[in-house]
Q: What sequence folds into this?
């Protein structure tokens, strides 16, 4: 197995272009599991740990630009106000040791439908930045996931960053698992409200071949939500939202849970997310008044 | 493919030629004879291989040795000074924070890394609102040590030991 260890981003892009079958590795928390168990024997690894800008984060034309290799720990510690749903998801990732290494870029590269970062990226309408020697392009997270572990990334491209819009309303993430730590989600859900555009974003994890949106549920809640006063929605509205989220999922039965349970869990998480959103929205109104 | 690297382990430099597939854990145990990090699960679930890499706790099984070229690695062997145990190690002895001891070196390294994270004000991942100043009560200790499993079930005394070590370090 070749080991490519570029020290600049330009070298990394050239290496990926010359070795499109090289597997990029950053924190290693996903790739190493497959290597240690012999599930995957890539012809080459492309080590990105020496490329400093992958660990950078900062404002970028109205977005928060998050380098693909920023560890979850940093997102929790420094970016919780700028990316609330993603920071909540970051807190739910694996264990402290893994959060010190793992990154959103790795989650996107692996593209497991159970990855914790995906639902928030869908809900907030984040962009994924892909780079190659041919140039740089940005793909909406909502267009990024094509199939189980298949994405819009081309073989010669590396994931350089994600771009998160400025939060414009309440955001949340929740996840079902057997314990708090070291759990692959049975199902997960993220909700983000945009008070300016008066739109709702959702993301469903671990309940389909890819991370999914619940588009009908988004439209329904956007039309029912009291954007001016944040009056509590009726129980029927909240229940209906939960049903629409559950019906958008395409889960299977597996070792972590049954399809039926996943749908049920999603409807419960969706209902709770609405009540949290109403509470947060009211606080925001009171603060601005 | 092989690579020449330099690992700095517990204050000593080791020039090493490693197969690029070698994990840091295997390099420590099988090449350098540093056997306190244990191979429990080999995929980051158990935390028995926890070491400090440039001061941060990580799973040794999930890092390639080549990626650690030039980095500073501290294992349980390297925590103490001049024949004295590190306060966290002493606390595990004083409070009987183990039974068989297999997970202990990882627990101890994890606790040392964790106490530094708390001192640096890192918020917890416990299911409570993120506080600006983390309070290290027992629930917090359990949450922050959740990446380390103990199959003997010595958790009660591990929590006591970590709490005691925190008192000493204050």
A:
């Amino acid at each position: 197995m070749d080991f490519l260890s570029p020290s600049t981003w330009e070298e990394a892009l050239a290496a990926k272009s010359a070795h499109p079958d090289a597997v990029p590795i950053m924190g290693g928390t996903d790739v190493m599991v497959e290597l240690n168990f012999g599930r995957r024997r890539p012809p080459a690894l492309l080590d990105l740990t020496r490329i400093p800008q992958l660990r950078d984060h900062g404002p970028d034309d109205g977005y928060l630009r998050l380098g693909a290799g920023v560890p979850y720990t940093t997102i929790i510690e420094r970016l919780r106000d700028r990316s609330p749903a993603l920071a909540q998801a970051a807190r739910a990732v694996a264990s402290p040791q893994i959060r010190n290494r793992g990154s959103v870029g790795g989650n996107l590269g692996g593209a497991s439908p159970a990855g914790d970062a995906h639902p928030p990226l869908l809900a907030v309408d984040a962009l994924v930045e892909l780079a190659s020697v041919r140039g740089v392009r940005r793909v909406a997270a909502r267009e990024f996931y094509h199939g189980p572990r298949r994405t819009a990334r081309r073989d010669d491209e590396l994931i350089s960053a994600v771009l998160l819009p400025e939060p414009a309303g309440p955001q949340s993430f929740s996840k079902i698992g057997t314990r708090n730590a070291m759990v692959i989600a049975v199902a997960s859900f993220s909700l983000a409200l945009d008070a300016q555009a008066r739109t709702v974003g959702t993301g469903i994890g671990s309940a389909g071949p890819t991370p999914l949106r619940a588009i009908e549920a988004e439209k329904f809640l956007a039309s029912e939500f009291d954007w001016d006063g944040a009056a509590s929605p009726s129980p029927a509205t909240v229940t209906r939202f939960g049903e629409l989220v559950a019906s958008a999922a395409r889960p299977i039965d597996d070792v972590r849970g049954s399809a039926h349970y996943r749908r049920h869990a999603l409807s419960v998480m969706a209902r709770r997310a609405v009540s949290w959103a109403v509470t947060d929205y009211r606080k925001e109104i009171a603060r601005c008044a | 493919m092989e690579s020449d690297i330099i690992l700095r382990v517990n204050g000593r430099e080791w020039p090493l030629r490693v197969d690029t597939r070698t994990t840091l854990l295997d390099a420590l145990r099988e090449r350098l004879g540093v056997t306190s990090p244990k191979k429990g699960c080999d995929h980051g679930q158990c935390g028995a291989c926890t070491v400090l890499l440039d001061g941060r706790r990580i799973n040794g099984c999930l890092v390639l040795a080549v990626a650690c070229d030039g980095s500073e690695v501290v294992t349980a062997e390297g925590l103490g000074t001049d024949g004295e145990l590190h306060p966290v190690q002493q606390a595990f002895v004083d409070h009987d924070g183990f039974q068989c001891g297999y997970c202990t070196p990882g627990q101890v390294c994890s606790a040392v890394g964790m106490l530094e994270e708390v001192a640096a004000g890192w918020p917890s991942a416990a299911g409570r609102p993120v506080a600006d100043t983390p309070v290290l009560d027992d629930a917090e200790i359990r949450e922050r040590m959740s990446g380390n499993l103990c199959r003997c079930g010595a958790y009660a005394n591990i929590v006591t030991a970590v709490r005691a070590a925190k008192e000493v370090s204050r």
